[in-house]
Amino acid sequence: MNKNTLKGFIVGFVMASLIVGSATATVNQYLLTPASYPIIVNGQELNDPNYPTLNYQGTTYLSLKKTAEALDADLNWNEEKRQVEIYNKKRESTIITESKEKVELIPKIEKGDNVKKEVFGEFKENAVMYIEEVDGEQYISLGAFSTYIVKEEDKYYIKLPNQNAVLVKVGTEPTEHSIQNVYKRTLVKLSSFNLTAEVDGDTITVYYK
Fold first, then answer.
1. Which residues pair with 108 in a beta bridge?
2. Please, is 45 exposed, middle or buried when counting C-beta atoms within 10 Å of its C-beta (0-12, 13-18, 19+)?
3. pTM for the full predicted model
4. Lower CB count within 10 Å: N or C terminus of the chain?
């Protein structure tokens, strides 16, 4: 081996060592444990031993693949942007709620007159999606706003289009814009977002006032 070759080998080895050392220094490790509770999607348990449900400091972590399949959503890898993308199969007209029901974003004619009220969303009433009335205020399950939730550390905000972000939960504690019921579920005050709701059978329709 001549001197130039030896010199190049030494420089390459040092550079590789620096790169590996730098990459190792920036790795964050997290200790996740198997979740001790079931995840129910549309009445079916999300349970696959190859894609376990995990818990980290009170937050549940699910496989993107199995979550997308359970929600009947499209899961794609965007090579150009180097990012994972999840879309509802009816992107233009639906959103996914905590109850995993599809919500039609269409105007609805109010009963008894010809006035159209703008619909925020329609929800199937069930064990995780419902309305409660407390002191004359309507509260709805947090899942009704699932696509509008913004989390900053332990603070949960809801940011609707053309509205300011509203703080609805800090950790597990409600704020002035929410309550926690006897089942420890967070429900959000509709009037905080200029919304109101009507229940017809097992269908909840939320309108803008």
1. 117
2. exposed
3. 0.47
4. N
Residue-level pLDDT, tens digit, the chain, 209 residues: 544 443 443 334 434 444 444 444 556 777 878 878 887 777 778 778 788 887 777 788 777 787 777 777 777 888 887 887 777 765 443 343 444 444 444 444 444 455 568 999 999 999 889 999 999 999 999 999 998 999 999 999 999 998 999 999 999 999 999 999 988 899 999 999 999 999 999 999 999 98
Place of tokens 């159209």: 116
Q: What is the DSSP string of 7-61?
A: HHHHHHHHHHHHHHHHHHHT------EE-SS--EETTEE---TTS--EEETTEEE
Type and span of the H or E element at 72: none
Q: Which two tokens stand for residue 130?
A: 């419902």
Chain centroid to CA 128: 15
In this structure, are residues 52 and 78 in contact, taking their beta carbons and an 8 Å threshold?
no
User: Residue 87: which residues within 8 A CB-CB, separation 6 or more?
Assistant: 73, 74, 76
